[in-house]
Design goal:
The longest helix has about 40 residues. Strand 2 and strand 3 form a beta hairpin. The protein is an alpha+beta fold. Helix 1 runs antiparallel to helix 2, helix 1 crosses helix 3 and helix 14 packs parallel to helix 15. The chain contains 20 helices and 19 strands.
């Protein structure tokens, strides 16, 4: 689906074409991505493709009879609500004595629906009986229509995350391809978030990787620029992308305005579904050039056609009769549910994604899928067609609600034959395989956690592991970081970074930095705001513990003693501590493990537990180094190049004039830096070392 939010672009007069100019022999620059533009999230750009969705914690079910007292109290609370409930559509919320929302539901007739819960003699599933027994009050919101109630219910479930509802987890925004409309030479780029920038948006794509691969292929096919506007305006010679035929060079007039506009039109036509027409036009131009003996031009068209074919071949199955649709298939196994989503736009497969919604074992596939769909489209535009593997109740109601939201008719169906049935069957196969892989990974993770119990003498397999590390360069831009892991692997939405704030800190004092990070982390957990029982492990909304069972420190005996002092001061005795000291020459596999009150331990290099601990430590190191570099680059942008010894305003101007941007100066080699007028070999070395010194 493409969304057009084009305003009138800035269109200065076309630049003079310079097709006959002699290429420069200097090393051309590579256009940078501007993290400040908001089109790419710099905090997640490097890790979002490998960010795995973890299996949810399944609520424990019990076959024991519910005690008479609590169940009677719940029935009484619901009966009281029935007497005050309207007979019109609305949404109701069941709350416990602590005012926590247990369940959010919608109904065409709220009084009738609540009355079904209040009937004492009615046979109810164990899940419903537990919910009734925990209910203390019921809150009701009236709506004008049942459709409005459906949309409100989905919104409240996502906000409140009730205990007894199906919950859509790990719901990220989807990336789009944006062809900008606010510049005379439109740019093609990945976009995530609000679609506020003028231009045309094409998507959604299932992952950032799918967008990046498609943009790379589109650059080869249509030669549309991907550089930022600032880089574009500062160019005096074509960049590297022009040399490798991934850009037509509009910045320096290598192509004129009408020619570039035609390339942009072709790219938009291809992304809008008119790929066959675009390929026919390119094939015709290739034959025409060949007939005129312009073989270089014909070869260029040939390469562009090959790039278009590569895009379509990499997209797997492409439907013949389905132009725009989302395909949902659900598979249940071992008490878990997996919903696989495939996106088809402009007759092309734009990727798929697996979801693992949180739901009790008693929910049927139809119930999970119905609740999942309403929450999924709460903040996303629906396509014209939605295909499902299982028929759901109130299918027409969901279609009406999505049609009102989208502004056009949306069809929701469960196909029985033909190509649509084949698409659903393909999605169902992927759902089955994705859940199988996730269950196998979880079982392997469980064995590793059990191995840590045996090897380290832990009281039980840790449900939450926190790993801490810090990074700095001679005490500057000091930052600490924490990563979290559990039975399902790394939990990236629990990662935290700590900018070191202590004013009296000795530069480079790793012990003091670690003390500050741990004090800030555990003081927050122990604060009264966390609750009167804050010192006990608690579960958050995603059933992942807030308190760690094991804390791992990157360091030796000294770091361990510093952390132990903090824990003793807080009176923490239930959290195990482990320090991982690097081996001689920092060799992996020769680490020494330190724990309070125990002899140092060395494991065999091929021990799976040691490999698991190395993975945890390396992930913390990766995260803290990335956080440090972002902080350092921000300081460099604010302070300018004068921060480098020996670089004053004159050399700064010369460097920026030669390279265009600070990013290009950072990427330059010592030899390239030495070519700048006024920059000596010694100054070039200092500049290079300033940008490439590895943080400690």
């Amino acid at each position: 689906m493409d969304n057009d939010s084009t305003d009138s672009p800035k269109a200065p007069g076309p630049r003079t074409a310079r097709r006959g100019s002699v290429p420069t022999t200097e090393q051309p620059a590579l256009p940078p991505q501007d993290p400040a533009s908001g089109d790419i999230d710099p905090a997640t750009a490097g890790a979002e493709d490998d960010d795995e969705t973890r299996l949810p914690e399944i609520p424990e079910e019990t076959s024991e009879a519910v005690q008479e007292g609590p169940l009677a109290v719940g029935h009484a609370a619901i009966e009281h609500a029935v007497r005050l409930a309207p007979t019109s559509p609305g949404v109701y919320r069941m709350l416990n004595a602590a005012s926590d929302v247990l369940y959010v539901g919608k109904a065409k007739n709220v009084r009738k629906r609540l009355a079904s819960y209040a009937r004492v003699a009615a046979v109810q599933p164990a899940r419903i009986l537990r919910m009734i027994a925990a209910t203390a009050t019921v809150e009701i919101i009236s709506t004008s229509t049942e459709t409005e109630a459906l949309l409100l219910e989905a919104n409240l479930i996502k906000q409140l995350r009730p205990r007894f509802n199906v919950q859509l987890r790990d719901d990220k925004s989807f990336p789009y391809i944006l062809i900008t409309g606010d510049h005379w030479a439109p740019q093609i780029l990945k976009h995530r978030g609000a679609q506020s920038r003028p231009g045309q948006y094409f998507g959604p794509f299932a992952s950032a990787g799918a967008v990046n691969r498609t943009i790379t292929a589109l650059q080869r096919a249509f030669l549309v620029r991907s550089c930022t506007d600032a880089f574009f305006e500062s160019r005096t010679r074509p960049c590297l992308l022009y040399q490798i035929r991934r850009c037509s060079g509009p910045c320096t007039g290598e192509i004129d305005f009408p020619g570039y506009t035609e390339l942009v039109r072709e790219a938009k036509d291809f992304l809008s579904g008119r790929s066959r027409l675009v390929k026919q036009e390119l094939a015709g131009e290739m034959e025409k050039a060949s007939a005129e003996l312009a073989f270089e031009t014909a070869a260029l068209y040939r390469d562009r056609l090959a790039a278009l074919s590569a895009i379509q071949s990499q997209q797997g199955i492409n439907p013949r009769t389905v132009e725009e649709a989302d395909v949902f298939a659900i598979h249940q196994e071992g008490g878990y549910s997996c919903v696989e989503v495939f996106f088809f736009r402009t007759g092309q497969n734009w990727g798929n994604r697996a979801y693992f919604p949180r739901a009790e074992k008693s929910f049927t596939p139809e119930e999970v899928l119905a609740s999942f769909l309403a929450q999924f489209y709460d903040d996303k535009p629906p396509p014209k067609l939605i295909l499902l593997s299982h028929g759901i109740e109130e299918c027409e109601l969901l279609a009406d609600a999505l049609s009102i939201k989208a502004g056009f008719k949306v069809e929701v169906s469960t196909p029985r034959r033909g190509e649509k049935k084949e698409l659903v069957a393909h999605a169902l196969t992927n759902a089955r395989e994705a859940l199988g892989r996730k269950l196998a990974d979880t079982a392997t993770q469980g064995r590793l956690l059990q191995g840590m119990v045996v090897t380290l003498g832990l009281p039980h397999p840790p449900q939450r592991i926190e790993v801490y590390d810090n990074s700095h360069i001679q005490g500057t831009n000091a930052v600490g970081a924490m990563i979290a892991a559990g039975p399902d692997g790394f939990i990236k939405n629990q990662y935290r970074k700590f900018n070191i704030k202590s004013e009296g800190l000795t530069p480079g004092d790793d012990y003091a930095m670690m003390r500050e990070v741990l004090q800030r982390r555990f003081k927050r957990l122990l604060s009264p705001a966390a609750g009167s029982d804050a010192a006990q492990p608690k579960a958050d909304d995603d059933s992942f513990p807030q308190w760690p069972d094991l804390v791992i420190i990157d360091g030796g005996r000294g770091q361990l003693n510093a952390v132990k002092e903090i824990f003793d001061g807080f009176g923490l005795t239930q959290v195990s501590l482990l320090a991982v000291a690097k081996g001689p020459d920092r060799d992996a596999g020769r680490e020494t493990l330190f724990m309070p009150g125990k002899e140092p331990l060395k494991l065999e290099p091929r021990d799976p537990v040691l490999y698991f601990i190395q993975r945890l430590r390396d992930e913390a190191h990766r995260f803290v180094i990335g956080s440090h570099r972002k902080l350092r680059k921000k300081d460099i942008r604010e302070a300018g190049l004068q921060e480098i010894p020996g670089i004053g305003p004159s050399r700064k101007r010369a460097l920026l004039h030669h390279f265009g941007t600070l990013k290009e100066i950072e990427r330059a080699s010592i030899a390239d830096l030495g070519k700048v007028p006024g920059v000596s070999a010694e100054s070039a070395r200092r500049i290079f070392e300033f940008f490439h010194t590895r943080p400690g």
